[in-house]
Amino acid sequence: MKRGVIQMEKLAIFGGKPVRTEKISYGRQWIDESDITAVADCLRGPYLTGGPTINKLEDKLCEITTAKHAVAVSNGTAALHIACMALGIKEGDEVIVSAITFAASANCALYCGATPVFADIRPDTYNIDPEDIKRKITKKTKAVVAVDYTGQAVELDEIKKICKENGLFLIEDAAHSIGTKYKGKPVGSLADITTFSFHPVKTVTAGEGGACLTNDEGLYKKLRLLRAHGITRDIDEMVNKSDAGWYNEQVMLGYNYRMTDFQAALLLSQLEKLEKFSERRKEIAKKYDRAFGDMPELILQKTIKESDTTRHLYVLRLNPDKLSCDRREFFDALVAEGIVPQVHYLPVYRHSYYEKLGYKKGLCPEAEDLYEHILSIPFYPLLSEEEINDTITAVKKVAAYYRR
Questions:
Q1: pLDDT digits over 22-35, tens only?
Q2: Are residues 209 and 278 in the same domain?
């Protein structure tokens, strides 16, 4: 049966009139005139790439996160890749990664020839389970990539302790969590390397873009080289030293992972609104918590007191004991009501590419169970009160129809 026919049938089941005729997606950027002006001013200037706006952006990221060093890059995947490279991850190494994340969190290990080892999640917070990290450590383990899923910080103290006791590096994949604080300290300054993503659905955007942050000067120097072909103009980094004004030298194999100046200009403008965006996301989360918290058909993500969270996603977990439908039916019914959710994420090792590498179903039971029952509903600062209320109405309407 065609998808359109199914949608029309659902409209008929629910009374013929959807909650909304104009659909709302799960995420959307907020670009205003100040952002447009910032980009236009940069385009009118002499530098489109490799210019001073990158330095201003990196200084701003350090200011916001209290990290000592920042390296802006072309996207969040590039940030993860050079983070692994800077830490010396190579063929034969293992990297422990959360199973519930975007594929890039694990792909970065593959890029370096290393093996991703997937750790399960806690069934209540959906973040990586420190106890399973311990179980997955071997003599080959080199690092942990801990993902701040939905924006909530992982249990950093416990994970850092595990890493220290076992001689492991910690990469905090904070693609979801810029603006979040852990025990009062900003995400970005707490791991060996923290990576950010500035994709349009994130809290702040550069269109695309990413960054690595670290307090280690040695890692910082490696990250800067890896971002730009491994080429340096710093005489102290050269093998064949020269102070000629034209001379530069490739001292390692790097990549072209540079961010443009006009992307940096957009992100600088966005970062001026980070606090406003964060507060609005917290307001919307509270409205959803109040609306859905007492519904037996739904299970809400547990929050930890240590994390003052700037949410990137608002995830609903369907309770199969209280609903007569599966996630697909619930998802399609919401779309029919004008609410377009998304699912975050398929456990990485369940992707067909990873299956070809030999990863099997059943590696992380909690992650697999979560995947079968979750969906992300519209959640971004630009949502109007009407759109928030319509989302709540649609979720309740579908849940009531399928209630056991």
A1: 999 999 999 999 99
A2: no
Q: With CA atoms as reference, report the closest residue to 132 among 142, 119, 144, 115.
A: 119
Backbone angles phi, psi at 239, to 5 degrees: -85, -50
Q: CA–CA separation, 346 vs 329, rounded Å? A: 17
pLDDT digits (tens, 9 = 90+) for 183-217: 999 999 999 999 999 999 999 999 999 999 999 99
Contacts of 239 (CB under 8 A, 6+ apart): 249, 251
Looking at the fold, whether 84 and 21 belong to one and the same domain comes out as: no
Q: How confident is the model at residue 16 (pLDDT cuts 50, 70, 90)?
A: confident
Beta bridge partners of 70: 213
Assign residue 141 the CATH number of its domain.
3.40.640.10
- pLDDT tier for residue 323 given thresholds of 50, 70 and 90: very high
**46 and 157 together in one domain:** yes
Same domain, 200 and 293: no
Instruction: Point out the domain boundary residue: 271, 286, 318.
Output: 271
CATH number at residue 332: 3.90.1150.10
Using the predicted structure, report yes or no on whether residue 161 has a pLDDT greater than 50.
yes
pTM over 0.90: yes
Q: Name the nearest CA neighbour of 265 among 72, 52, 39, 50.
A: 39
**Does the pLDDT at position 97 exceed 90?**
yes
Residue 372 to residue 115: CA distance in whole angstroms: 26
* Boundaries of domain holding 13: 3-29+274-401
